[in-house]
Design a protein that fits this description.
This protein has no helices and 11 strands. By secondary structure, it is mostly beta strands. Strands 2, 4, 5, 6, 9, 10 and 11 form a 7-stranded mixed sheet that branches. Strands 1-3-8-7 form a 4-stranded antiparallel sheet, with no helix packed on it.
Amino acid sequence: QVQLVESGGGLVQAGGSLRLSCAASGRTVSSYAIGWFRQAPGKEREFVAAISVNGNKAYYTDYVKGRFTISRDNAKNTVYLQMNNLILEDTAAYYCAAGYGRFSTYIPPTNDYNYWGQGTQVTVSS
């Protein structure tokens, strides 16, 4: 069992930055890849970014490439999502999720994340 708790959301002006954190606990957390997803009102949940177990591999959706950076500190069991140059379309509830890492650089497909946090709201204003 893996428990995930997101934090760091809030209200920010367009062009600003936020850093989200995903604190993980439970057995063998270091065996899981972590992904960030988001869901805006009236829209389906979408993939944002993911990072492998060892942190050496990351993957981003095209919408956030060059603006968002995912990283992890396994000693602290925490994954971060640094979000820069935020735009109005980034407004959403952001969720982190854990998917079992078959090997150290594995990133699961988007439908293979088994544990989810409760989410943190990010609101970008003009």
